[in-house]
From TrEMBL:
InterPro entries: ADH-like_C, ADH-like_N, ADH_Zn_CS, CAD-like, ER, GroES-like_sf, NAD(P)-bd_dom_sf. Keywords: Metal-binding, Oxidoreductase, Zinc. Belongs to the zinc-containing alcohol dehydrogenase family. This is NAD(P)-dependent alcohol dehydrogenase. It comes from the Bacteria. The keyword Membrane does not apply. CDD domains: CAD1. It comes from Oleiagrimonas citrea. Pfam families: ADH_N, ADH_zinc_N. Its cofactor is Zn(2+). The keyword RNA-binding does not apply. Residues 11-346 form the Enoyl reductase (ER) domain. PROSITE patterns: ADH_ZINC.
Length: 357
């Protein structure tokens, strides 16, 4: 086993602190990755604070991982030492259910092995004696089929957030065929939201940001948004009723879905990707105008690779603030206050022991 420095949440109520984990030597079909950067997703906060229940502690969060392959198992065909790769929200799945066979591993009927706050598999089955540890650590051992290629040309720190924020916004935009001149609204301009703006623009849409932070107007327009509406202004919902073909809702906190559905045109679609506590939904919000409300969960391996290649081709990358791991607890507080433009990314060198002279 490889003793590996990490940071963990000891419980739902304590700050993250240094923690040592063990990574395994790569098996025949596995690779060992030195982690260079790891993005900080709002889901890390939800899980470290047990907002969704069932969290497993101690927890080493982190599922926006990029790094370098440093060792490969003897039967690995896809990767070699020195390759620049990514690991997203899951590291394994059953591989034989309908979802897995469709390349939609995130919906594995036996449950995916999430990158942290979940379990590795033994003989294909989730093994409760083997918790997964995420990217707030210096290395990770992963099956070769659950690793992504990070294309050249995307700076690595700016590539990390694509592994969750990127795919989570790319997937629904593609599924609902968002394209040229579609009127798209992105609700919530955080890590996911800012990727939604960039990706929808790259697909040719006319993009409006709906934000509860009026101070984000200039930077939203600088990101490429065509318009910005402050939802603090209650008139916005009446003035812009029926305006949008598609709404991507990335908000992490409770808000009124019915109000946003009112902004959709007839037969328009609103996709929820933000995961706040349960909210009331009125049937009338959907019935009047035959509107569609749906949700979306990250994306499968094949689509995640497609997204990374799309980003390289279109010059899309996350806007990041790089931090050392010792700033992680402050970064969580700042994210909760909406004070990040637009993704914190950990420089994982800050977790490594200084080299002996
Ligand atoms: P984030 O960077 O913290 O952004 C969330 C944004 O929500 C904020 O920037 C803010 O935007 C808005 N917001 C926050 N509090 C609000 C409030 N009280 N009222 C209205 N708007 C508020 O978080 P993130 O990493 O993008 O994640 C967003 C959500 O998506 C989280 O719930 C996360 O767990 C979830 N998620 C889902 C998936 C999936 O597969 N479905 C994947 C990753 C993350 P404004 O300041 O512009 O209003
Ligand atoms: Zn995430
Ligand atoms: Zn499966």
């Amino acid at each position: 086993m490889l003793k590996t420095p990490a940071w963990a949440a000891p419980s739902a109520t304590e700050p993250l602190a240094p923690f040592a984990i063990e990574r395994r030597e790569p098996g025949p079909h596995e690779v060992l990755i030195d982690i260079r950067y790891c993005g900080v997703c709002h889901s890390d906060i939800h899980q470290a604070r047990d907002d969704w229940g069932g969290s497993i502690f101690p927890m080493v969060p982190g599922h926006e991982i990029v790094g370098t392959v440093v060792k490969v198992g003897n039967q690995v065909e896809r990767w070699k030492e020195g390759d620049t790769v990514g690991v997203g929200c899951f590291v394994d799945s059953c591989r034989h259910c309908e979802a897995c066979l469709d390349g939609e591993e995130q919906f594995c009927s036996e449950g995916m092995s999430v990158t942290y706050n979940g379990y590795e598999r033994t003989d294909g089955k989730l093994d409760k004696s083997r918790p997964t540890w995420g990217g707030y650590s210096t290395r990770i051992t992963v099956d070769e089929n659950y690793v992504l290629r990070v294309p050249e040309g995307i700076p690595l720190d700016r590539a990390a957030p694509l592994l969750c924020a990127g795919i989570t916004t790319y997937s629904p935009l593609r599924r609902y065929d968002v394209g040229k001149d579609d009127k798209v609204a992105v609700v919530g301009l955080g890590g996911l939201g800012h990727m939604g703006v960039k990706l929808a623009k790259a697909m040719g849409a006319h993009v409006t940001v709906l934000s509860h932070s009026p101070g984000k107007r200039d930077s939203a327009l600088a990101l490429g948004a065509d318009d910005f509406l402050s939802t603090r202004d209650e008139d916005v919902f009446a003035q812009h009723a029926g305006r949008f073909d598609f709404i991507l809702d990335t908000v992490s906190a409770a808000h009124d879905y019915n109000a946003y559905l009112g902004l959709l045109r007839r037969d328009g679609t609103m996709v929820l990707v933000g995961l706040p506590e349960p909210q009331a939904l009125s049937a009338g919000s959907l019935i009047r105008g035959r509107k569609r409300l749906t949700g979306s969960l990250i994306g499968g391996i094949r689509e995640t690779q497609e997204m990374l290649d799309f980003c390289a081709e279109h010059g899309v990358a996350a806007d990041v603030e790089v931090i050392g791991i010792e700033q992680i607890n402050e970064a969580y507080e700042r994210m909760l206050r909406g004070d990040v433009r637009y993704r914190f990314v950990i420089d994982n060198d800050s977790l490594r022991e200084p080299e002996a002279a």
